[in-house]
Inverse folding.
């Protein structure tokens, strides 16, 4: 995914009310940007960090700038926008970085399914064995000191629900995948963040035991764009 027009660089002053961030621009002016991330953004919202914003050009949005990237205090660029993950994974599928998901000929987005009023991020059809494949995507930005990417970075009741829904699809004969979209490049493996949300960790292990598959891919991230280009293993130690 290429950013066009180019992103605007600034310095993060604060993130607040979950969806807002105050950013100082190079000319000294301060603007408020929309923060498209519902998590805690652990390690990715420290005041003083370099950030990059996208100007949507919208005349109707109260906050026309969207926060896209942050450079952590360790100098690592991270993509924080959860709303672009479908696009990133679809591109990875097309480039064959997403396992055998490229074998499916049809991709639909945000399809209603399940018994708990859910929407699946991607529904893949016309593939191997005639089984539909339900793909739930999770944006991953957190990292531990050992180089593991971690999900979630805050308690995620919704994420646990999605795992139940995926397991239910497997039970009726479909294929189901939890896909961890890691918008940073300094990690080697993905694991559940049991220390943050033990219920999610248990649900992930139960889902995998029931036949749900886990895939992950790390990204090359920079102000020019974000590209998922490196498959990662998923482990549940």
């Amino acid at each position: 995914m290429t950013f066009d027009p180019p992103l605007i660089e600034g310095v993060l002053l604060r993130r607040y009310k979950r969806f807002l961030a105050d950013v100082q621009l190079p000319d000294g002016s301060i603007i408020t940007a929309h923060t498209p991330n519902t998590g805690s953004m652990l390690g990715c919202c420290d005041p003083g960090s370099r950030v990059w914003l996208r100007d949507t050009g919208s005349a109707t949005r109260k906050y026309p700038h969207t926060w896209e990237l942050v450079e952590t205090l360790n100098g690592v660029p991270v993509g924080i926008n959860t709303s672009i993950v479908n696009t990133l994974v679809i591109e990875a599928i097309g480039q064959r970085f997403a396992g055998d998901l490229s074998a499916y000929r049809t991709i639909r987005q945000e399809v209603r399914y399940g018994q708990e009023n859910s929407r699946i991020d991607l529904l893949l059809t016309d593939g191997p064995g005639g089984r539909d494949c339900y793909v739930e995507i999770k944006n991953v930005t957190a990292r531990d000191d050992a180089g593991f990417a971690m999900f979630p970075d805050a308690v995620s009741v919704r994420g646990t629900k999605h795992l139940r829904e995926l397991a239910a699809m497997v039970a009726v004969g479909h294929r189901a995948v939890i896909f961890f979209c890691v918008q940073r490049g300094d990690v080697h493996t993905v694991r559940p963040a049991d220390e943050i949300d033990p219920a999610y960790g248990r649900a992930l292990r139960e889902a995998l035991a029931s036949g749900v598959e886990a895939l992950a891919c790390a990204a090359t991230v920079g102000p020019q764009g974000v590209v998922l280009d490196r498959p990662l293993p998923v482990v549940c130690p």
In short: The chain has a mean pLDDT of 97. The helical segments are 85-94, 157-171, 198-209. The first strand starts at residue 8 and ends at 16.
